[in-house]
Amino acid sequence: QLNLRRIQLNRWIACFLIGICTALAGIVIDILVHTSADFKFHYILQTLVDRCDNGEAIAGGGCMWLVQLAWMAYNCSMVFLAACLVIFWSPIAAGSGIPQIKCFLNGIHIPEVVGLKTLVVKVFGVSAAVAGGLCAGKEGPMIHSGGAIGAGISQGKLHKKLDPGFFKEFRNDREKRDFVSAGAAAGVAAAFGSPIGGVLFAIEEGASFWNQALTWRMFFSAMISSFTLNATLTYYFKQGGLLSWNGLANFGVFEDKSYTIWEIPLFLMVGVIGGCTGALFNSLNYRISEFRKKFVSNKWQRLVEALLVAAVSAFTGFVTLFVVDDCVPLGLGMNRTEGLNRLYCKKGEYSAVANLFFANPEESVKSLFHSPIGSFKPTTLLIFAIEYFVLSVWTFGLAVPSGVFIPALLTGAAWGRLFGLGVEWLFPNVAGIDPGKYALMGAAAQLGGVVRMTISLTAIILEATKDMTFGLPIMLVLMIAKWVGDFFSEGLYDLCIELSEVPLLGWNAPKMARNITASKVMRSDLVAMEKRVRVGRVVEILAATSHHAFPLVDRIDESDTSRLPDYGRLEGYILRTQLVALLKKRAFVGEGEEGLMGEMMSEQDFIDVDLREEKVEMGAADEMAMMDLAPYMHSHPHRVPLNASLPFIYRLFRGLGLRYLMVVNEDNRLRGIITRKDVARFKNTKGFALRELFISDHQF
Amino acid sequence: QLNLRRIQLNRWIACFLIGICTALAGIVIDILVHTSADFKFHYILQTLVDRCDNGEAIAGGGCMWLVQLAWMAYNCSMVFLAACLVIFWSPIAAGSGIPQIKCFLNGIHIPEVVGLKTLVVKVFGVSAAVAGGLCAGKEGPMIHSGGAIGAGISQGKLHKKLDPGFFKEFRNDREKRDFVSAGAAAGVAAAFGSPIGGVLFAIEEGASFWNQALTWRMFFSAMISSFTLNATLTYYFKQGGLLSWNGLANFGVFEDKSYTIWEIPLFLMVGVIGGCTGALFNSLNYRISEFRKKFVSNKWQRLVEALLVAAVSAFTGFVTLFVVDDCVPLGLGMNRTEGLNRLYCKKGEYSAVANLFFANPEESVKSLFHSPIGSFKPTTLLIFAIEYFVLSVWTFGLAVPSGVFIPALLTGAAWGRLFGLGVEWLFPNVAGIDPGKYALMGAAAQLGGVVRMTISLTAIILEATKDMTFGLPIMLVLMIAKWVGDFFSEGLYDLCIELSEVPLLGWNAPKMARNITASKVMRSDLVAMEKRVRVGRVVEILAATSHHAFPLVDRIDESDTSRLPDYGRLEGYILRTQLVALLKKRAFVGEGEEGLMGEMMSEQDFIDVDLREEKVEMGAADEMAMMDLAPYMHSHPHRVPLNASLPFIYRLFRGLGLRYLMVVNEDNRLRGIITRKDVARFKNTKGFALRELFISDHQF
């Protein structure tokens, strides 16, 4: 009893720490990015432009090239840093990290995905990538970092060499998964200032099954994280009243809050466009990823590609600045790119293009949402949307930590605002058409079309704009975008997962799968043991297989008809870790001896077995000894009969979060085993026909 | 394929209709309450007071008594109406309805709980009860109405005689349950203007298992409902810009939005108080309910009790108005009780007491939240809080539809504001202490202490106040209130469910249940059949039992050791509805005949069997005929071995939403069956010791 209370309390303490640490990671990222931007603008740019003005450099165009070269060099060096960290230290930290977290929460163990190394690379890598001017968001990596922090704290260690021994009671897969979901929620809360959205995200994208107490703890982590981030950043940037900061990506409050019913069809059109462009994004990115997998496999090639993208991104910005002449009087919108404006605009004006291309992307989104009419020319918006779209398609999947949220929002905000200008042009006499409103809808539509999240994305956008008024239209836009997008392709994260060939189980069993039975799904070449087993055989099996668990049966006979043995009744199963622990503790007796099989082991002895390290060697005498597994086995594994249908099996895996399922015949004799991978092989294709996938051999 | 798409589309259409209709129910309730209040104030009160002023009635105190009598008579007649509807027409419509919806979503069928009659009584009953001045909220009944609408629309009929035949594909328990949860979400959205809170409510209190697509549809219903309500009520009351209305219970926006870190301990204290008073509320109400169950069982007694409470409520208000002298200058707070003020206050002043007791409760909550300092005297608040607490304890559980949300919020807001005044008195030099802030925390704490909801309640309060700033403190307050409350008693709804002896399954298996095995949980006096069975035996079994499904085994032998037969291997199961349909279609052949067992039936033939109507009568010749059940049976029921532990069984029931589970021995021979009721018998008591409950025989 007391113990149960203590564990309960520890869970809350762990969640508190997860919230705090995730916020700290967010703070580090934000301050690094901010400092780098300051450095870039004030020291490099300002200084150079000043020198240009003073005529020290070559006159005219030449000076511009100098600025541009310095800018590109700085960006490339930052991206070089990020790419080196990823390529040479922690390849799993590449990309957004949301697909990896999704897989982890779905019950699939990918090595190192929530390790300390990944966390460090993620935090510093994403800071460098964003500072390097890539079309990359820091939100996805924030969420991944949150997950890694959740795992690290709950396990009481981030690395096997640093083990102070806290929270030993949480060292099992189930608890770890719960804390990772709390960390992911905290990550969303820190990234967008949206704790409710964070919880919904963790539930929607992650947790296979819903649990009230877990959700409440996730919410606690998310709230603490969002609060800590607000308090600290408010203090750091000395911005007005306490606690007024709101997450890293804060889209500002809309002043003009109303919309009328006749605007809803227009919003739906925005949704359709977002679904199409989102699907286009996904399929282009999928093609590029496939290409990359084949032709850019080498480490150096990947590094060069990252540098190339950095250079092209910077170059594109400058070329656009040069070609598009969009100078706007100061004071009309926000201006955060002082140095650059002076290059191309008269005094008292600033360059709208520079404002879009060179400012912090979150600020660009804000200025697209809130700038008054006339701040951006239609051509600027069009060119920017197309260029940013192409660049972000190319960027996502590079060997740097980079998210897709902010690029998608920014692209969408640009074409959404363009759409809004179009609406205004068509209906010049109707008051109340604010292009910012359409920018918001466009941003939602583009992001929804790319990631295909539903309720959590709505909550995130609502919380980030701090207003419920646009709830209905945003929901409708996201819904339409998802429908339209689903018509063409899967969501970006699902495509990533498909590319990496991980056996993720979706929400529902594939349709038309009713005729597939357990006997077709299972693998019958399984390795089972009897309850009393020779040590030699155990050692042999452990060496020969990498299975995670072994069924125990009452007898094993030679089969008449097949080369596989004929297994008897299923009695239970035993884990690999248990076998290793038993062997290490020498819980067996020599041949012929009777009585108790060595010392009884307690549950405590079975945790903390690190399978990677354990090589069990036995002497010849020991090999003949007998072990009794009966006291340690799990005596009632989940089982299904041979004629169970695939949807039935699917529901068991999803609903209970299983890793394997025994298949027995009508006499309860073991006939096969079904793993998650066996179930995940069956997938729907477009026309509802069933497809069998070949899935790579991740160990799980 | 086409069919699948059509069903998918129909689901969305049904959800759209659910949203619209739930909003309409909310609109009807609101307009009825509003009209009644208008009538009461303007026609009864104003007229009488005018006549008093004109000296037509007996002078002074006598006139007051006349007003009071008229007021009480009106209230009592309204409550009489509500109570008659409930007592004589639809007893299930009494109370808040949330426990019933919770049970329904948990998988328990209570007859009539989502029927048309219940809906009508709920909508008009709650309007009358609130109009009758009871300490009752309309929010719980709104949620129940939403659920009933969800069921009615998805089944394409609200009543068996009105069946246009829509949505036939949804006529099964699972789909119905999904739509009821969508309706409940829509109900919350309409009641509080909080669609996200509604979805979270449906998930937290209801849905046994999480499903992304379902959640998205729930959200759609909730959004549509909230939008429709806003649009219609804004139009009806002609209040400013379009869509500015926000749910029935809208708590207004806080102007003074900040709080400082040193206030958090104070908020936590509020949480502790709320937990205590909430637990007190629950245990007092539990006592009263037990008393009622024993001594107020008669219909007329229940009617009299309802009238008594109505009279006492009105009387208490007047007495307090008379005793407590709290006249406040006009313009300081809100004033909506013109007529009454004139009785007790000078010109240019109004009575703060009247404002609390006689205004619409939602308005009272708002004025406690937002009125400036000095609007209420501490004594007024104290007396009001105590009186309202007592009255609402007495009211909840009366034979009228009445919720507990608003009474709890109002009580909490009153003592919270008192607490705020206390804080201000203690720290007179600190700026920024707004008693309204503490009123909000008090309201949250009281409600949290009573209902013990977590994340959904946070979301509801945040959305109803339209501000995220107080997110962290509200969450902390609710958390503390729940912890403290759980220390003393269960949540109010759980107590209601316990009183009604319904076998609800909680989130987790009871602790200390690992040693209880399936052989202890199961009932072995089950009725099974062979696959080829005599018609006579089927008729006999259908008449003798009320089971919902029957296991099929390969043989049934006499047992040597027990009076129960010895069943053979489990082969499948068949539903009662299927048996009835087979008998009605005469899907059997006479004795001795061979070949196909009559006509094959399709799935379509098995829906729409109404068990209440079907009395199957067979001739003597038919009784000897044989039926073959093999083509129709479900061939792989969920099964567990005899040694499966209770937590294991619990997880199966919860995770998969099962109704029954077969228990087999190691040869796969049927040994018993476990129903939801058998699992629900085992409950935790305080000290973690396990308790076996006796559960009444609801049919399910």
Kindly provide the radius of gyration of chain A, computed on alpha-carbon positions and rounded to a whole number of angstroms. 29 Å
Unreliably modeled segments of chain A: 695-700
Helix content of chain A: 55-70%
Number of strands of chain A: 14
Strand order of the largest sheet of chain A: 3-5-8
- By secondary-structure content and strand pairing, the structural class of chain A works out as mainly alpha
Q: Tell me the span between the first and last alpha carbons of chain A.
A: 34 Å
Assembly type of the chains comes to: homodimer
Gross geometry of chain A = elongated
Which pair of protein chains has the largest interface, and what are the residue counts? A-B, 70 and 69 residues
Number of helices of chain A: 25
The proportion of residues in beta strands of chain A is: 5-15%
Query: What does the main sheet of chain A amount to?
Result: 3 strands, mixed
Mean pLDDT of chain A: 80
Please tell me about this protein's structure.
The structure is a homodimer of 700-residue chains. By secondary structure, chain A is mainly α. Chain A is 57% helix and 7% strand. Chain A is built from 25 helices and 14 strands. Chain A has helices spanning 2-53, 61-88, 98-106, 116-131, 139-154, 173-192, 195-206, 212-237, 264-295, 299-323, 338-344, 352-357, 361-370, 378-395, 405-426, 435-451, 455-465, 471-488, 492-499, 518-521, 535-544, 576-584, 620-623, 646-656, 676-680, and strands at residues 327-329, 349-351, 529-530, 532-534, 549-553, 556-557, 566-567, 570-575, 626-628, 639-641, 660-664, 670-675, 682-684, 690-692. The first copy, chain A, has a three-stranded mixed beta sheet with strand order 3-5-8. In chain A, a hairpin with an 8-residue loop joins strand 6 (556-557) and strand 7. In chain A, helix 4 packs antiparallel against helix 5, helix 9 (264-295) runs parallel beside helix 19 and helix 17 crosses helix 18. Chain A is elongated and about 95 Å long. Chain A starts with a helix and ends in an 8-residue tail after the last strand. At the A-B interface, helix 7, helix 8, helix 17, helix 18 and strand 10 of A face helix 7, helix 8, helix 17, helix 18 and strand 10 of B.
